[in-house]
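FORM 7B - TANDEM STRUCTURE REPORT

SECTION 1: FIRST PROTEIN
SEQUENCE AND C-ALPHA CELLS:
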Amino acid sequence: MDDNIPQDNYFNKTTDTGGEVNQTSLQFNERKMPTLRSWVLFFVLLGSTLYTTYLAGGKLYALSLFLILGAHEFGHYFAGVKNGVRTTLPLFIPAPPGLFLLGTFGAMIVIKDPIPNRRVLMEIGAAGPIAGFIVAVPTLIIGLFLSETVAPTGQSGFSFGSSIIMIILSKTILGVTPLSVDFNIQLHPVALAGWVGLFVTAINLFPIGQLDGGHILYALIGEKSKIWAKCFFAFLLFLVYFWPNWGVWAILLLVITRFKSAPLEDEEVLLQKNHKIAGYAAIVILLLTFVPVPIEFIQ
C-alpha cells in the first residue's frame, strides 16, 4: 500500500559545468538516501510487527508474513528509486492480536515527490502487489503441503474464506477445498501467512483512490477510473450483508481516499505495452485473491 503526499520538487535549474559534480545532483542524491531517523523508525515498526504477528501465529507465521509484506512494500520502494521518486522506507503496522486477529494491519509507504506521469504511476503502483503475489503464492503452496485435512469436530472457531487461487491450490495439493462440508483444512502457520499475504494484496488492489489498485486503474484509463472506484465502493457496501466488516473498510476508504487519484506532473505521457501488461496482470491478481467473506466465527 502506498500513500501519495507530494512535496516540493528538489530539482533546480543548476547545470553541470565541466567535469564537476553540481550542487543539485548532490542534494538530489542526499535526499534520496533514507536518513538515520527513517531507518530507526523502520526497525522499530518492523520489530513491533514481528512481535505482534508472533503472538498471533508463532515464529513461522511471523517470518513468512514479513517476507510477503516486505516484498510488496519494497517493490514500491525500488520502483520509486528506479524512477527518481522519493518514498519512505516500508512502514509495517503492528496490531495486538486481541485487537486484530492477524497481528498486523499490513504495511505502507509514503510517496514524497510528485509522480511524473502514468508510466511511473503504473510502475510504482503495480510493483508492490505483483512482488507480494510472487512471494505469497509459493508461501501458500509450501504451507498447504504442511497443512492437514480433518473431519469436522463441531467445535467453534474462526473460518478463513476462500479466494479462487486458494480453492485451486488446496484442491490440487490436499484434494479438498475450503468449501467442503466433509473436511476441514487445518492451516499450517506458513499457509496462514500465505492466506493473509494474498488477502492484503487483494485489499491493496481495490481500485479506489490512492490504493495500489487506484493508481493502476488511473494509469490505465485516467479520469474514468473514478467511475469504477464508485462502482466498486457500492459493491463493498453490498458485501456488508455477507460480512459486516466490509462496512468498516468502506468507511476507512471513503475517509482516507475520497476517490482522489494521485496528481501527475504530465498527464499526456501514455503507457507503453509493458505498463499495460503489468496493469492487466494486477487486475487478474485481484480477481484471483479477492475473498468475499474473509473471516467468520463458526459456532
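SECTION 2: SECOND PROTEIN
SEQUENCE AND C-ALPHA CELLS:
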Amino acid sequence: MKKGNNSKMAVLGLLCHKPMTGYDIKKTIQQSTGMFWSESYGQIYPTLKKLTREGLAVVEQSKKRGTASKTVYAPTAKGRNTIKTWLAQPAKTNIIRSETLLKIFFGGQADLRTTQMHIEQELADSRQVLAMLTSAEKMLAQRSNGQRNLTDFHFKLTIAYGKKSLAAAVHWCEESLRKCSEWEKSEGNNR
C-alpha cells in the first residue's frame, strides 16, 4: 500500500461507522484512535476530497447555515469493500515515533533536569490518556448494557491495548524518575 494510504483508510474506516463531517472525524479521532493514530484537519479534508474523487465516499448532505456550510460524507459500497480488503491485509511493522524518547536519547548533551522534565511531562500525559481510556471503557460498558456488539468488542480490544501500554509507560516514567534521582545523588557524592 502506498504511503499516505493509512490516512485514507483511517478516514474511510470512520465513515464506515457513520457518516460524518470533517470536523466530526477530527473530534472522533481525538476521542477514540488518538492514542495510536491521529490526523490533522490538513490531512482530513484533502483525504475526504480524494475519497470522493475515487468513488469511495459521497457527499450525503451539504447544508448552509449562515456563512458556514456543513458537508457530511458517507462511504459508498466500493468504499466499504476497500476497507474490508485493507483489513484483510497484514499490517506493516509499527515503528514507535516519540519525540520524548528522542530527546531522552540525546539528553546527555543537555542536563539531567531537562531529561527529568521530559519524563515528568510524559508521566502526566500518560496518566491523563489512561484516565480518558478508563472513562471510554466505562461508557462502552454502559452503552452495550450487556449486549454483544462486534464493533464495541473491537473498540474494547484497542482500549485494553492502550491501557496496558500506558500503564507500562507510567511504570517506566516512575522508574526512570527514580533512577534520575539516584544518578543525581551519586553525582553529588562524587563531587
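SECTION 3: OBSERVATIONS ON SECOND PROTEIN
Residues 99-189 form one domain.
The longest strand covers residues 57-65.

SECTION 4: SIGNATURE
Preparer initials: ____
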